[in-house]
Amino acid sequence: MRVLWLSDETPDVDGQGGQRRQFFQIKALRDAGHEITVASVMGSQSDDNVRRIATVHRVQTRIGPLRNLFAGVQTRNSVAGEWDRIVVAHSESWVRWGDTAKRLGAPTLVDMHNVLSAWHRQRGEFDVARHWHSIESDIAARATISVCSPKEAERLRPISDAAIILPHGVEPSEWSRPPSRSARPKLKLFGNWYWQPNRDGLAWFAERVWRELPDGLSCEIAGAGAESITLPPGVRAVGRVPSVSEFLSDAHLVAVPVQGGVGAPVKYLEALTSGVPTLATLDAAAFATPVPTFISDSAEEWVSHIGDVLNQPEMPAREALTIRAWALHEMHWARTSEPLLAWVEDSSRSHEPEHA
Q1: Are residues 252 and 182 in contact, defined by beta-carbon separation less than 8 angstroms?
Q2: pLDDT in tens, 231-250
Q3: DSSP tag of 163
Q4: The pTM is what?
Q5: Are 149 and 313 in contact (CB under 8 A)?
């Protein structure tokens, strides 16, 4: 199959969560024998990695009311031809390139990932929620939709009840280093701290949890944006790290506090894959594991659980290794991308326009 992949982001294994999600989905399609062409916005994001697995076109944009039209014309010119399938990554990309997908006419899937209208409604941003509801309704009328979790499928139900669940995954080769706790207790966090739900979660953790923890515990935070946040004593930002697996490997606990988030953070699954006992808020956790993990929005319960793990670490460590083995076997990208592969290879779609 000839698959056209349209995205505002540039898929990149070394990028943020959404870029990584796209890279590994494209790789799964390529590994299955499909020919992938990616059109993405010209900018600072690197296309070096995705060019190794796909043909890439970068599209210039313009500032102003004609920018989406300009991008659409550029994209149609650069990817003109016959396509068997079109994948549009995220609702935001549909805003820019939905008309391109419609004009090209091939069966189209929009990996909505998150239902933005529901998220903004939850935050009390009702005008923005109506804006995204209109866009999501347009998508549902013209394309197949995939989302990243059952929670997001439920949020989409007022618009469409036919969403494909396309979960996040992990790349096993990135997680070859097993955990080995340091002598001194360490708690670690990682993520993109420019993303507001992460920043809100970090603020909650610093104000409500960290200040109540015993002396002798150190805390390190990896990822872009943490250096711009005022952190309490004992909490240190280390910036972006070459390997999340190595960064987490000597931790006693990994914390994933997300407040007011949307979808399923990629980093929650990666934290579980580390093999280190993990704590998460409700907005961070999106799926069940073979062994129950600690999930709570109560700061008091976080403080109590951290104390329990530090005092008696052996059982939590064994449970974390069980979850790690499950994630590496069941949640690798080749497996979690199977619903996308099934949609691409569904022969019944070859001669019919996509309408949800």
Answers
A1: yes
A2: 999 999 999 999 999 999 99
A3: P
A4: 0.85
A5: no
